[in-house]
Amino acid sequence: MKPTDFSVHVTTFLTHYLAAQRNVSPNTIKAYRDVFTLLLRFCRDVQGIAPERLRLEQIEVSLVEAFLDYLERERRSAPSTRNHRLAALHAFFRYVQSEVPDRMLQCQKILAIPQRRHARPTVGYLSKEDLAEILAQPDLRSRGGRRDAVLLSILYDTGARVQELIDLSPGDVRLDPPAQVRLMGKGRKMRAVPLMEKTVQLLRDHMQENHLDRPEQFDRPLFRNGRDQRLSRSGIRYILQKHVGKARTKRLSLNRTVTPHTLRHTKGMHLLNNG
To answer: 121 pLDDT band (50/70/90 cuts)?
Structure first.
């Protein structure tokens, strides 16, 4: 069977265009791939179109809108999740319109499908006292406690996203003045973030203890789990929640949900308040 035009464009979009031309992160590519998996299943199970027979001309506005309604109704997707799925489809059809000009009108009609408005949750931030209590919880007498102490300190000090923290390697760290870490952010954009003196000392001790200050270790994970691998998102959330739970027993004001993004927002608010 001859490949359909839809299969050719989806494959090129996911395996070549996003990574080679747009320099999109592997996590974003995976998220986009998941959207097409859902779309193919919807076309097969709801629309009765087998994946191997799905053609580009069949992906019209009515089908995309039906797919988005299906996500909300059958899969109970939140409006924000629906919008993320739509953003992936918008990226694909923005690519297709330049590859297949005779499909430009079809693509632009899909690009005109609006994002759904929804209330955005307010992200709180911690007082300096609450933050200090959390950062004081790791037990510096244990190896794991020392790792947690520097991890939490960097999470706050740099305002790093969780994935940025996961991706850190010793080669991204500069301990000599001006001390800083190099973070790979969204859109594969690199930025250098300065470090406070206390964080620098914690980080220096961590790297020396784990022999990460040697040149041959510069591509290794800066923070590792018990299997000597990079920490996962759930692993970092677990570490944070463990120490937040202990801090709550000492400070009644810590009665809110604290996530890694809370520390990122806290850093921004502290900088703002300090002028």
So the answer is: low
